[in-house]
Design a protein that fits this description.
This protein is mainly beta and 311 residues long. It is built from 3 helices and 11 strands, in the order ααβββββββββαββ. The strands form 3 sheets. Strands 1, 2, 5, 10 and 11 form a 5-stranded mixed β-sheet that branches. Strands 4-3-6-9 form a 4-stranded antiparallel β-sheet, with no helix packed on it. The protein has a two-stranded antiparallel sheet with strand order 7-8. β7 and β8 form a beta hairpin.
């Protein structure tokens, strides 16, 4: 993403709530994922604690910044599913997002479709695996996993009666010149069809961020450590504006504080205006795309994808 983008969101009321709940974690690889994503009591807290923490934010509705750019690595047709890993290696991350209506007392938005996408441990996006993430990283094809190069680390979940969605994924890596982040869209008015989500309106386009100290510790672990170079901290990122939770900073906590490889859980409350329509153009500062970054328009199918900017 280069240059500044004018916010073209159309809304009679624009608001976003973001707040953190307590979080916990659990393991690398298959066994680790089983413990990380189990809804059972662990050494640092319970799922009930996280639920209570997130629910308590309903009375703390705050107005937030405008949506930010969806970036160049977006693809239509993500699958509706909880686990988006497809075997990708990395530190497990359980993401819990709560969607509320900021214009109506922060009531839950039942049926909202939350869509996320992010890069793998070495900085590659599915559908864009030829784009160099900057620094020195193995080729994406060297990982040897069973992931589909067009769908991994992308997916939708439909909010339950409490406005809650959960994703099982991995801690994202990084690519030049961005800090570690996850892209997110909130849709309403559409429906699940053929395994994906069709129709409706995009109400919010944003990005989720990670505290520097946690990200930098994760990046010393394998497979992240095989990607070397200059990592961009939050203060230097072109999109994150320093607003903490109100700017998309996730609340994170490891179950096993002495072993970050066991994973994390992250939570955030997203307060939207269901009457808003957002184009995804958003805003954000400039920056230099990674070397060999794709250019042009992404394909509609499995041809070599491309993009216009780095975001």
């Amino acid at each position: 993403m280069t240059g500044n983008h004018k916010d073209t969101s159309i809304t009679r009321r624009r608001a976003l709530v973001v707040s953190g709940g307590t979080v916990a974690a659990g393991g690398l690889a298959v066994a680790g994922f089983q413990s990380a994503f189990a809804d059972t009591t662990d050494t640092t807290g319970t799922e009930a604690d996280a639920t209570a923490s997130a629910s308590s934010t309903s009375s703390e509705c705050m107005t937030l910044m405008s949506s930010v750019t969806e970036g160049p690595y977006y693809l239509d047709g993500a699958l509706v599913r909880k686990d988006i890993t497809e075997g990708k290696a990395g530190v497990p991350l359980t993401l819990r997002l709560t969607v509320v209506d900021a214009t109506d007392g922060c009531t839950p938005v039942k049926g909202a479709a939350v869509e996320i996408w992010h890069c793998d441990a070495w900085g590659y996006y599915s559908g864009y695996t030829t784009a160099n993430p900057g620094g020195s990283a193995p080729a994406e094809s060297e990982e040897g996993d069973s992931a589909d190069d067009n769908t991994y680390l992308r997916g939708y979940q439909i909010a339950n009666a409490n406005g809650v969605v959960k994703f099982e994924t991995i801690f994202p890596g990084w690519y030049t010149p961005r800090t570690c982040h996850i892209h997110v869209k909130v849709h309403t008015g559409g429906e699940k069809e053929d395994g994906t989500y069709e129709g409706g309106t995009v109400n919010y386009t944003g990005q989720l961020f990670f505290a520097d100290d946690i990200a930098e510790e994760i990046f010393t672990l394998n497979p992240y450590s095989r990607h070397t170079g200059s990592y961009t901290v939050l203060a230097d990122d072109m999109v994150y504006d320093g607003g903490g939770a109100s700017s998309g900073l996730l609340s994170l906590k490891a179950v096993h504080k002495k072993d970050p490889s066991k994973g994390y859980k992250g939570s955030l409350t997203l307060g939207i205006d269901p009457d808003a329509e957002n184009t995804g153009a958003g805003s954000g500062g400039g920056g230099t795309p990674p070397s060999d970054a794709p250019t042009g328009t992404p394909p509609s199918d499995s041809a070599s994808p491309s993009a216009s900017t780095s975001s």
